[in-house]
Amino acid sequence: CVFKHAKSASEYVAAQIAELIRERAAEGRPCVLGLATGSTPTTVYAELVRLHREEGLSFAGVHTFNLDEYYPMQPNELQSYVRFMNENLFDHIDIDQANVNIPDGTLPEEEVLAHCAAYEQKIVDLGGVDIQVLGIGRTGHIGFNEPGSGRESRTRMITLDKKTRQDAASDFFGEDYVPRRAITMGVGTILEARQVYMLAFGEGKAKVVAEAIEGPVTPIVAASFLQEHDNAVAVLDEAAADRL
Ligand code: GLP
Which residues form the Glucosamine/galactosamine-6-phosphate isomerase domain (predicted)? Predict the structure, then answer.
């Protein structure tokens, strides 16, 4: 789906999410959202906040699972994805904090493996992710699935690519301060979502978007695995679609 501007693209995705939330609420069933961080989805979240405030969209029955978190990372740190999600979405809606799930960057290393398995299990117990929102990194990553992440990969600790750490450098006031690792849902985890929206905006994403959508399906570009998903939609602005 190519939109003229990122704003209309974001409103489209927010509308799809809102429709699902309302449907599930009417049925009395929980709605499970997979959420992403980064600059790309912020307008989607702003639109969801607007729908909550102005149209009474309730998140009371919504469960969320974020894709990833830096490791190590304390929730109150400036760059933490917990903080990002609170500031951009959760602080402004009526979601139950108990229904919010974000990989835990505070755990001692020996507990991470069990945490990742429990994270996966919780998604399964809730019936799976209904809508997964994704951005795409310059390395072709979805979540933090860096080059080399296979189709079957699950939630796990990963070493961040140099390019990813460079892109995060300004957030951390220098590349040296960017964590070397992160916890991320796997490609396999992401592909199990019933509906996927991969968002990309701006000319800086055009090259990797073309590789992901029109290039070979390969672990070198984790987003390319979305080609094998029946309900994956790339939601782009014209600039990001420029090389298609
Ligand atoms: C980070 C996140 C990804 C995100 C990517 C792109 O690496 N972990 O989930 O897709 O950044 O970020 P941006 O949307 O700011 O371009």
Answer: 7-217
